[in-house]
Write a structure and sequence with these properties.
Rossmann fold, 2 domains, 17 helices
């Protein structure tokens, strides 16, 4: 995403009369970046934000009830407050002067605690180079934050500038990374050869390796909880897991994972498998394994995933278990699909849920976090016309295709580029290290395609226009969606450091659903917060018992009433879910029934299919 770095000011001089070193460094950085390709360019093929220069696009459909839609088309010119620019320049000149003084006096800078420069090799000239980079980066970010624009445009500018700031770190380039240079000397040049081998291997994969993928195999040491596939269609396979207890609750649990990733994030290895732990609590667990779409499935829509995906799975589980009402769980996008499906069934007068669990799920997209900077009207229109089957006038043009999984994966990686991109560029390529085995990162690299119409509908109706939260504003499967009609006991979990589903946005679901709610806030992020088995004793979570089901509209007000509990949130959920399991009974002798017989052993064929 090419965004030219802002200048401090046209023609501005330092006290000595020469151009400021900041302006010179920014100019050099711009020239280098314009001529040198780097992994950030992959985002341009996915959900890349627009540049700082505003481009006119057709305004989104007007919706008075939608408070998330922009009130007007953003202005084409954005300004910086001259007084603020002078203040930032003054601070920068003061800081850089102190740095040069320390260098002349032979002092070693502290490098501001940045973990990228903690190695012993970052001393002397290299330390000063790193500190100058930190000062320049801080100024660029501050300038981006000072742009006078609407909130979304300002977020996009800040995000784009941060991408360039992270890319320009001296740690990312061999010529300015003393640890990589020292590694060459220590290995007699072998690290250079290993780094080149790693680069060539990743070029063939089309992505940066984050883990040793040869260490894992689906069905061998990940996704190994015993079970059987009892149903399949062109959208999903349904897995029924084998009971592990002498008695089971009569009412089963159906899990709807996100279709944007493989399901086995919830069934990694036995010690951290959410599925296995839930089965061990005496629940009969069913789980949707979404198909990795091929061109043959490119035309599937959001309605298809609701009707022939989620609702069809509910019907099959009802038939196998002989239970009219089920315990239902949705994770991330799976929770959005599940909430939509339940609202559709409610509109049809059908009540199928005994309880509902939503893990890091958005139903209200008013604040969709960092992902919102990647979605605008022009971006959505482009997806609609190229892969979504929608013409400029809103009619069907029949042009459908797939949203490639590798492009989605690249976009998600660049939401945290230092941790998920540049960290591996430095380790794998500059230092020639082999990636270490890590099951979660193996799953992260196992990307999934999405059908174009499904993807385009999702972008417009959630991230762009936030239509799901408004009762009866949007129709799915031919009926109006009203989430307030979902009046079953609901457990809502959010992660405090989640950058994909900000926890106040997950909390906002407490204001939309009609039934009694228990809200729990866990530590850590989108994945690590959810996948947190109790035996490890890691992290903590927050609960509030004082509100007695009356949730304030402001999430921070809820947090003021909450208290912290050490350890995993899983035991709290196990205790809550047990109240909706029904009477104990002997487990079934075999998976499925006479209508739905076992097709193959879990985890099934669909999860093994990799995105092309």
């Amino acid at each position: 995403m090419a965004v030219a770095p802002s200048r401090i000011g046209p023609g501005r001089k330092t006290r000595g009369g020469t151009p400021s070193k900041k302006a010179a460094s920014v100019l050099r950085a711009t020239q280098v970046l314009r001529s040198t390709p780097h992994p950030a360019k992959k985002m341009a093929t996915a959900l890349s934000p627009r540049t700082v220069r505003s481009r006119k696009a057709a305004p989104p459909p007007s919706t008075k009830a939608n408070d998330a839609s922009p009130a007007k088309t953003p202005d084409a010119s954005y300004q910086l407050d001259p007084a603020r620019v002078l203040e930032l320049q003054s601070d920068y000149v003061h800081s850089i002067s102190l740095l040069w003084r320390d260098m002349l006096e032979g002092k070693n800078p502290a490098l501001s605690g940045d973990k990228r420069f903690r190695g012993d090799a970052w001393t002397g000239l290299h330390a000063y180079l790193a500190e100058i980079y930190i000062l320049n980066s801080r100024l660029m970010v501050q300038l981006a934050e000072s742009v006078q624009a609407d909130a979304k445009t300002q977020s996009k500018i800040r995000f784009a500038v941060q991408q360039w700031v992270d890319a320009m770190s001296p740690a990312n380039y061999f010529a300015t990374n003393p640890e990589a240079q020292q590694r060459v000397i220590e290995t007699g040049g072998e690290s250079l050869g290993a780094g080149l081998t790693n680069i060539l291997s990743d070029l063939q994969k089309g992505r940066i390796s984050q883990t040793d993928e040869s260490a894992f195999e689906i069905g061998r040491n990940v996704a190994v909880t015993e079970g059987s596939v009892v149903f399949q269609n062109d959208i999903f396979q349904l897995i029924q897991y084998r009971p592990q207890t002498k008695t089971v609750y009569e009412r089963p649990l159906l899990i709807v994972p996100p279709c944007i990733n493989k399901f086995y994030i919830l069934d990694l290895q036995p010690e951290n498998s959410f599925v296995r732990h839930t089965v061990a609590q005496g629940h009969t667990v069913f789980l949707i394994s979404w198909r990795n779409p091929t061109p043959a499935q490119a035309g599937f829509t959001w309605d298809d995933y609701v009707e022939e995906g989620t609702i069809r799975a509910i019907r099959v589980v009802q038939d196998i278990s002989r239970q009219a009402r089920l315990n239902l769980l949705g994770f991330c996008v799976g929770g959005t699909l599940l909430g939509t499906a339940l609202a559709v069934l409610e509109a049809r007068g059908q009540k199928v849920a005994q309880s509902l669990t939503l893990l890091t799920t958005l139903l209200d997209f008013s604040d969709a976090g960092v992902l919102s900077v990647l979605v605008d009207e022009a971006q959505v229109q482009m997806r609609e016309r190229t892969i979504g089957g929608v013409a400029a006038d809103g009619t069907c043009n029949g042009q459908v295709g797939l949203m490639p999984g590798r492009d989605l994966a690249a976009s998600f990686s660049f939401l945290r580029p230092n941790d998920l991109v540049w960290n591996y560029v430095v380790s794998n390529y500059l230092k020639g290290n082999a990636p270490v085995p890590f099951d979660l990162l193996y799953w992260n690299a196992d990307s999934t395609n999405l059908p174009g119409p499904f993807f385009a509908w999702y972008l417009r109706n959630t991230y762009l226009e936030n239509r799901l939260k408004v009762p009866s504003l949007v129709q799915v499967c031919g009926v109006p969606v009203d989430l307030s009609r979902i009046d079953v006991p609901t457990y809502i979990y959010a992660s405090r450091d989640d950058h994909i589903v900000p926890w106040p946005s997950a909390y906002a679901s407490t204001q939309l659903l009609g039934g009694p709610v228990r809200f729990v806030l866990g530590a850590s992020g989108h994945i690590a917060g959810v996948v947190n088995p109790p035996l490890k004793g890691k992290r903590s979570h927050w609960v509030s018992e004082s509100l007695q089901g009356r949730f304030p509209a402001d999430a921070r007000s809820w947090l003021d009433t909450a208290h912290e509990v050490s350890g995993s949130w899983w035991p709290d959920w196990f205790h809550w879910l047990a109240g909706f399991g029904g009477s104990p009974m002997r487990p079934p002798r075999a998976a499925g029934n006479k209508h739905y017989r076992a097709i193959e052993a879990a985890p099934g064929a669909y999860v093994r299919a990799r995105a092309a």
